[in-house]
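User: Some background: our group keeps a shared notebook of sequences we're curious about, and every so often someone picks one and asks for a predicted structure to add to the entry. Today it's my turn. The entry only has the sequence so far, pasted here. Could you supply the structure so I can complete it?
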Amino acid sequence: MTIDVLGHIQAENLVVTLRSSSGGLHDKFIVHPVYGPSAPRPKHYLDITSRIARFPQIKPPIGRHDIEFGVGPDGGNVIEFHCADFRHGRSWTFHGLARLDPHVESPFRITAAITASNLHGTRTEAFEQEFSVKAVKVSDLIHLEEGRGFIVALPMQEKFETALKSKDNDWLDFSFAKRADDDDDD
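Assistant: Of course. Here's the predicted structure to add to the notebook entry:
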């Protein structure tokens, strides 16, 4: 999705909302463990990383011209962007991924709504994507013997492989692959 301001008036207090009809919206590839979760390991008594993670992070201040997430792309069905002063001639692009719910009827719909305090009303656009569900085994999609590699081409496969090789955590979400004991206090 790309936002452009055409004309000579900036958009003040810009709010962009993306809402999916079914499924989730995300800005990263979600990585699931193919062979299931790993076995739990005992923690070392000097391990303080879980205790440090409990302290709140201080966010850096957001500039007037910066885009920030009001509702982040965490896999839910709503994403919301805010910008205090989106100047004319400026362009901003959001690269996201959609997770389709196979138990919901086709088509998958994303509704984009955009408004600003100095513009009249809200502009809404809907985008639909037809899909069909096919039940397959994991081994029909991934080379399990080799431990890596896809049999079927993925959308954005080049970006996924580049992020995987460079370990780019801005594009990979391993939260589903965490062990169950990662958040324990022991």
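Suggested note for the entry: The first strand starts at residue 2 and ends at 4. Helices lie at 49-52, 157-166.
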